[in-house]
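Sharing a chain and its predicted structure for anyone who wants a worked example. Both blocks are below, sequence first, tokens second.
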Amino acid sequence: MRHVDSFEIQPPTPPSHNGVPRSAWARARRRVSRWHRPYIAMLLLLDYGSAALASWIAIQTFDQAASGFQDAKESWFHTVAFLLLPLGWLIILWGNRAYDRRYLGLGPDEFKRVIRAGVAVAATVSFIAFATRTLLSRWTVGFALLGALLLILLGRFVARFVLHAVRRRAGHAGHRMVLVGTLPEALEVYTAVTRNPGAGLVPVAIHITDGYAAARGMETPVPVYAGRDVLALVREVGGDTIAVCGSASAEPGELRRLAWQLEGSGVDLVVAPQLTDIAGPRVHIRPIEGLPLLHVEEPTLSGPALLVKNLLDRVAAGLGLLLLAPLFLAIAVAIRISDPGPVFFRQPRVGHEGRTFRVWKFRTMYVDAEDRLAGLVDQNETDGMLFKMKEDPRVFPVGRFLRASSLDELPQLINVLRGEMSLVGPRPLPADDGDFLGDVRRRLLVRPGMTGLWQVSGRSDLSWDEAVRLDLYYVDNWSLAYDLSILWRTVGVVLARKGAY
């Protein structure tokens, strides 16, 4: 952190142009962020190899004599299976922008585009076979296409995992950002983009638009500038992306002129609007007479998707309880040996629409834990409604292991089976007062979950305000795909034992 005490203030230099030649070859090379070039080359090799491997497995699995071109030569068949079809995959993936650096390494768009390309490949193969009256084995072709799609998705997942590991450990392969806006807005965006180092968004400077006096003496994590030409500043600090924050994007004509100035410079322009907690599926741009209006839809908290979620919850909870029964028995024995008393701990919590229920957990504390709580209140390490201590003396050794591994939460599958909880949702909070005030009440619009955005974003290491913000974000932007993403991220968080105590 550094204090903002002085600035190098220069009169803004006018842009040298407000547009560039329309030749596609006149674009400038990116000065800093070139990580995507070797990464895309690796993806091309992985995708080609995945498609070729799927064809080989299909041929080996089914009889080659009945697998394809019965009246064609074997060499032509192999040319199609191992050369033309994989090349077709690459071309259609490229056409669906599955190699666009904007979608690589972050978010679900990359995988959506791969799936879309898979559908296009299947349609193309079907059309060509129909148009040429080629006799194909449906099993072989279907196996080759579906296998290629699954292998390509797996390869990209592994590549993304490696990319995130490089970003976390070495700090490379990221986008160097210059944040433009007022200092509070820029710092808010800084906090958001640096929360996940794997995303590769690295702010390197802040250019404030409300004058240096508003920021004098404040601590900032990166250098702060004022009164500078933004493009010149980006080149000076080695940036490759400009992020316009909050109200800075509302200045009439300024954003358009900045976009003109950046044309052909190799610098990306992104806008972080004030709707920071509204996700993409709820935001739609509908231009009216040349005026782009940003429409924000209501959150979807009912309908067929919610019915599917409830059904999946019940089925998964029932299967989980059956499969985990031996583990439950072993944990119960360990608890009774560690501290005689009940195996389960049941506590009133507030659930959907304010209804209270008793949550099921494996007991991790000594039986007199509640009596000892009064003497530990002044040692609370959180700033919210929950009491948390990293070294809580009321937790016995086996209980500490259960908490670190999150095994103590497994009995909540009973609550999920009974419809009191969901697999994914805001964590249920204690019902001491039986009510919540202010924004916190909005958490009650959905069923509480065994895991949630709070848990995969830091768990007990987060402040109360940040935890509430994440829970409200989930409520406002819920979807089945988001639930699956959180479940997948939960696996990594549990294995890493991050923020569990």
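Comments welcome. The two ends are 29 Å apart (CA to CA).
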